[in-house]
Amino acid sequence: MPIQYESEIFALAKQASVMMGKVTTIPMATRDIYWPKQLTACAITWVTDETTGKTETNPTFTQVHLECETCAAWLTVTEELLEDYPGNLGDFFKNQFVEAWAQEFDKQVLNSNASPFTSILYDTGCNILNMGTGKTAFSDVGFSDLIDMENAISAAVGEVGLRGAVFIMHRKVFNYLRQKKDDDGQYLYQKPAEGVPATIWGYPYIISDQMPYTDAADSPFLILGNPKYWLHGNRVGLQFQTFDNTIRKIDYDQIFYRFRLRQAFEGQHPEAFAVLETAAS
User: Fold this and answer.
1) What is the pTM of this model?
2) Which residues contact 53 (CB under 8 A, 6 or more apart)?
């Protein structure tokens, strides 16, 4: 008997990227580029009188190396499936790849440990803060820890490092903060029936599925910093190609879809970020 394919495919919609548009994106004309980074700024001094020589200033610079890598995937469908399916499977698969890239983008910015790029959570150039001894669970986080993160950035690079800073965490960690109570049993951050505040200690926050949520000792799980200080290099943007003139189509009626891009990620000013970790024990 005939088989009917419904036109709508039910799928759990993935979270769109929360970091695209927040980091600094740089077009890459070649595989490698070097982005200048200032180490020390110009300095000025007072002269004692009009006959005193002025002091020479020597700002210093270094370079941030961006080297792109390829991210890709492919899949195959049959001509028969495309003929029998009333919707546009090509558009469906394209959207699936785009959603997968949105998640991977956030992972590479936030929670990638040299796979292939090192993210904010694992960059040793960031200000790393460990919670006190015995605080090995994410639920041990307190509002004082967030103040310590603010102080770490201020001490490292000055108040300029806190401009545009945001907290970044998993929703589970955010809810641990919402559950904190004072000595009278009152919620500190949000009382029942109140709207959720837009900031924490005056800083906006970002909730991301790509941030850690499973407890582990000596593990990073919360970020404070301005995402603009993280670089994203774009060598080749989103490519979605159809290959339907191959020997596999002749033999097996197969058509191929390929998704591909070439991108890079690197911290320009990791010292302007603070990362909170659980205690080692």
Assistant:
1) 0.88
2) 47
